[in-house]
Write a structure and sequence with these properties.
Helix content is 13%, strand content 23%. It is of the alpha+beta class and 79 residues long. Bound molecules: zinc ion.
């Protein structure tokens, strides 16, 4: 896919890709509400964000961030 937009399989790949572009603090196109597996809900304010409760890392590429289905889990404190 070249640009890597929406084509990544794992959350870790998304984190590494977004960080390599220096875009980890970019806001997503839509401020999705994430329901973490720990039971905590929070608003996705940046394209890479840890759950405030359990520190699970969630990640999405800026260009695919309009769809909540593109948000991936990368693991506890991956970012
Ligand atoms: Zn959590």
């Amino acid at each position: 896919m070249g640009s890597g937009c929406g084509s990544m399989r794992s959350g870790q790949e998304v984190v590494d890709h977004v960080k390599s572009k220096g875009k980890e603090n970019f806001p997503p196109r839509v401020a999705h509400v994430i329901e973490c597996e720990c039971g905590h809900s929070f608003t996705m304010e940046t394209v890479i964000m840890n759950c405030p409760s359990c520190e699970m890392t969630f990640a999405v590429t800026p260009c695919s961030s309009g769809d909540i289905n593109n948000i991936k889990v990368a693991g506890i404190k991956y970012a």
